[in-house]
Specification:
Order of helices and strands: HEEEEE
Oligomer: single chain
Strand content: 25-35%
Number of strands: 5
Strand order of the largest sheet: 2-1-5
Number of helices: 1
Mean pLDDT: 87
Low-confidence stretches: none
CATH topology of the largest domain: Rubrerythrin, domain 2
Radius of gyration: 25 Å
Length: about 80
Amino acid sequence: MLVLKILMAVAVAMVLLRMGLAVLRTLATPLPEPPPAGELRKVKLQYRCSLCGTEVRMTVATDESPNPPRHCMDDMELIATEE
């Protein structure tokens, strides 16, 4: 019975050690450099036309904070940014 408890404790310690090392590896990985100007970037923006109520979700853009799209000859209003 004592041998089983020791084996279980060693197994749990190995799992915790591996999980801790995995977390440290992800924290030590540097962030990737931003893409060059003109390349598409992922964004999550939602716009609404104030005149007719049309909603648009923007998922990619050439800039991280792009100009709002136009609808009904007017700029749309930003209603949500998902992060």
